[in-house]
Amino acid sequence: MSEVKLTQLSHGGGCGCKIAPALLQQILGEAKEKLPFANLLVGTETSDDAAVYRLNDSQAVIATTDFFMPIVDDPFDFGRIAATNALSDVYAMGGTPIMALAIVGMPINKLPVEGIRAILQGGESVCEAAGIPLAGGHSIDSTEPIYGLVAIGIVHPDRLKKNSGARAGDRLILGKGLGVGVLAAALKKGALSADGYAQLIATTTKLNTVGSALSALNGVHALTDVTGFGLLGHLLEMCRGAGLGAEVKFGQVPILSEALPLVQQGYGPGAIDRNLASYGYEVDCAPQLETWQRRLLADAQTSGGLLAAVLPEAADEVLDCFRNAGFEQAAVIGEMRQGVPRVAVS
């Protein structure tokens, strides 16, 4: 495996592989009316993180899938990152994972068996850490390496946290620092230090288990996770779902320390430009905001942090919840406000 670089076998990596928001909307078309399934609590209406179906008065099943091409060259780390990212969508609904299935597409003529097995073992290790079985899956021979999970979880219907539940005046809290896409882009260009790689792995393999605890807090109105569309893209989804605007204070946004000098030097994935081209017209940036700051807010995060909209008086409790779960960079970054679904950055 020392001679095989996973990131050189694919044209993209991590959540930066996502189809750009604007193009995705063209492909999917306008949102259709909700289908007549009374127990389907969450479908495609607000671009939420997972589908949710009520089984009874106390249980709803969460179903989601996420997969992508390599963001790092180490196969075990790739498997860990992909699995952590997939399970995040369950936590982002306020749920608890109960089972996963593997999605595997590998160029079997380019990757040795031990490398493919290491990818799967990485995913297995994350499922073990989450306390769930990796109970099966599906595999194909593909031209580029692809790995991810189908993740199944449960949540009490009353504790379900949608991305559309935010209210005017809610504080916005982000659980992880931004900059994953920047670090990954530097890695691919051979410009990432050992410390930078260690930080990349540490943040992308940290499970967002805090979402399960946040579901029990009445002061948490909305949850989502920040992934391929960047902070601005996923916050705009929250705004559209709630019919509200939002304000972000850049100076309060947590940033991965190793990514900061790199983004200032111009490093970043192509997904940044695709993201800004898709939704930049819905973002109002203060004149003093520099180009690198705007780009960082659109950086494609892989296995990024949870974004919560919470009552102002619940902000301290929510921050304590994040920090007790090991999310030391969690911070209030702005607030929801009355107005059209736009984001203002100051």
How would you concisely characterize the structure shown here?
This protein has 346 residues and is α+β, with helices and mostly antiparallel strands.
Describe this protein's structure:
This protein is α+β, with helices and mostly antiparallel strands. It is built from 11 helices and 13 strands. Helix 2 runs parallel beside helix 3 and helix 4 (180-188) packs across helix 5 (194-204). The model has no long low-confidence stretch (mean pLDDT 93).
SSE pattern:
HEEEHEHEEEHHHEHEHHEHEHEE
Portion of residues in beta strands equals 15-25%
Residue ranges: pLDDT <50 for 5 or more in a row?
none
Counting DSSP H or I runs of 4 or more residues, the number of helices is 11
- Summarize the biggest pleated sheet: 7 strands, mixed
Q: Which descriptor suits the 3D outline?
A: globular
What number is the mean pLDDT?
93
Query: What is the straight-line distance between the termini?
Result: 46 Å
Give the topology, please.
Blueprint: H1 21-28, E1 40-42, E2 51-54, E3 60-68, H2 75-92, E4 96-106, H3 113-130, E5 134-141, E6 146-155, E7 171-174, H4 180-188, H5 194-204, H6 210-214, E8 220-225, H7 230-242, E9 245-248, H8 260-264, H9 271-279, E10 283-285, H10 291-297, E11 306-310, H11 315-324, E12 331-337, E13 343-345
Parallel strand pairs: 4-5, 9-13, 10-13
Antiparallel strand pairs: 1-2, 2-3, 3-6, 4-6, 7-11, 7-12, 8-11, 9-12
Helix pairs in contact: 2-3, 4-5
Q: Which features would summarize this protein structure in a list?
A:
346 residues; alpha+beta; 13 strands; globular; six-stranded mixed β-sheet
